[in-house]
Amino acid sequence: MDLSKIYRYLDKLSDHQHEIVQDISVQHTAKLFGGNIGVLFYDVTTLYFEADYEDELRKTGFSKEGRHSNPQIILGLLVSLGGYPLAYCIHEGNKYEGHTMLPTINEFVSKYGLENFVVVADSGLMNNANIAELESQGYKYIICAKIKNESQQVKSWILEQPKRDCQMAEYDKGGGRRLPVGYTDDRAKKDAYNREKGIRRLEKAYKHGALTKGNINKRGYNKFLSMDGEVKVAINYDRVADDSKWDGLKGYLTNTDIPIQDVYTAYHNLWHVERAFRIAKSKIEIRPMFHFTRKRIEAHICICFVALKVYKELERMLKVSEIKMSIDKVLALAKTITTIQIKLPLNKEVYTQTMLMARHQRIAKLFNEDFWVTR
């Protein structure tokens, strides 16, 4: 097919198609969970463009992929448990990501009449204003708490807790807010390793005289830098020692009444939306984009949303059907299947026949329409 025809078709895709595919995805996902979508996971990513200029949608901003000089858009994604896509939103590339979440959730909840659900999101999306808004709407939430920014009283309580692997404790913050805090040996090792690696980089830069006042900020491990006198920049090892006290600790802020271990499990299922973004970027190749009109950008995202839904459904069906193959292998094998058309000479009837060879038998059931309908 001519590429220009595909581009013209993108112009015909409108918000109506967006709503249709979203409705289908929500209805199908709800069916998988017995009619109840109990958890909403929300996160955002940035998608860059191979372009040198900005417009009203494509803006330069903080890039999650280090493409700070490229125009980008922000893509917000709402998924269910298991990573099934429910809804998405598109925003200007320079918009604060914390302002994207509540409008998306409010619209989704209003449209589909959701009740008794929990919102799970990363702490970067949940400032105090967003938390207050969630509570005013009566929504339940679970987020990662910034425990090092808590009051001195709370921080002292956290550091007094015994550090035993997989041990969790809870602090009552009042007003229905709970602060579960957990410790794991694996996280402690990871925190110590990452800090040591960061310190080594700082020491190397210090040795070569590459540290200046401009490096003194709170970005990454630069937080360990301080002024030694009026001119010299040095590594503050007292800060390093204080930071090590927090190794292995992670906190969660919630207004739910579910057991503390369930809070931990629910938050760590946030990897489902992170994986959805990885699938979209690597398998579906959602970016980079070369479109420049808003309609085509929106159509491109809509098609990728459908592709993600199909990918997740195929993943589920492989598990249900006990086909022990990866999706990549199934797709590669499917590309070798040939379909032929036979036209009878007498009555001119046309028959279509899919030619499944011996190597295709492992996935043959996927081409049976009844197989999909009954599941």
Element order: H for helix, E for strand: HHEEEHEHEHEEHEEHEHHHHEEH
CATH topology of the largest domain: Nucleotidyltransferase, domain 5
Main sheet summary: 8 strands, mixed
Helix content: 40-55%
Question: Which CATH first-tier class of the largest domain would you pick?
Answer: Alpha Beta
Q: Please tell me how large the radius of gyration is.
A: 25 Å
CATH architecture of the largest domain: 2-Layer Sandwich
Summarize the structure in words.
It is built from 12 helices and 12 strands. The protein is of the alpha+beta class and 375 residues long. It folds into 3 domains: 170 residues, Nucleotidyltransferase, domain 5; 58 residues, no CATH class; 47 residues, no CATH class. The longest helix has 27 residues. It is globular.
Task: Provide keyphrases for this structure.
single chain, 375 residues, alpha+beta, Nucleotidyltransferase, domain 5, 3 domains, eight-stranded mixed beta sheet, two-stranded antiparallel sheet, 12 helices, globular, RNaseH-like_sf
In short:
The protein has 375 residues and is α+β, with helices and mostly antiparallel strands.
Layout of strands and helices, then pairs:
Elements lengths: L2 H10 L2 H18 L6 E10 L23 E8 L5 E8 L8 H12 L5 E4 L6 H9 L3 E6 L6 H9 L6 E8 L2 E7 L1 H23 L17 E4 L3 E4 L1 H8 L4 E6 L5 H9 L2 H12 L11 H27 L6 H8 L3 E6 L6 E6 L13 H5 L2
Parallel strand pairs: 1-4, 4-5
Antiparallel strand pairs: 1-2, 2-3, 5-10, 6-7, 7-10, 8-9, 11-12
Helix pairs in contact: 1-10, 2-10
